[in-house]
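Q: Got a minute? One more chain.
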Amino acid sequence: MRIVIVGGGKLGRQLARNMLERKNEVHLVEKTRGLCKALANELQIEVICGDGTEIEVLERAHTKGCDCFLAVGGTDQDNLVACQLAKKKFHVPKVIARANDPRNIETLRTLGPDIVVSSTEIITNLIEQEVDVAQMHMLATLNRGRASICAMTLPANAWVVGQTLRDLPLPQGSLVISVVRGEKMIIPNGETVFAPGDEIVAVCEGRVQHKLENMLIKRT
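A: Always. Here it is, folded:
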């Protein structure tokens, strides 16, 4: 995969190292000249010195045609602008942003990236997954990988649309813990009715994630 990372701080450096170890092509953008030199020497890659909110800089970083774009700088506003450019100008299929301030998570989700997270481990996992509104993706692992927290946005033709939680044949080892509907988060109960565009967040044991995904889309 070709991956563009904006922000060469601790998180950006670690993500670049993780992706290089997995034999990915990585392009790193950092605005501080001295840090650029240090990163280039440490990672043995070209580091683009410039502002990731500028189109010309993103062009030099080969953002056009890349598989994944990450904005992990220290300013949420800059991360948002970089992600908006990646999506609207360069049409990157997978855009992930770091939220430095938890209060900005919902704003970032609404205005820019596909996914907003803060942990290095979570971001690394998300880079290597296909992100699609009709696909479930992992947000975090629990109990040393024995379980995971997963999320999925329901498409209009999903089987569960119009169904209540009580009526769902949830796979054993899975639990729906929240439903995000627009700006509102719902703690579901048996009477909760699912609607198109709902973001379903669930806890899944082991390899139950794919079973739950299939059940939400089409009854199996």
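A: The two ends are 33 Å apart (CA to CA).
Q: Perfect, thanks.
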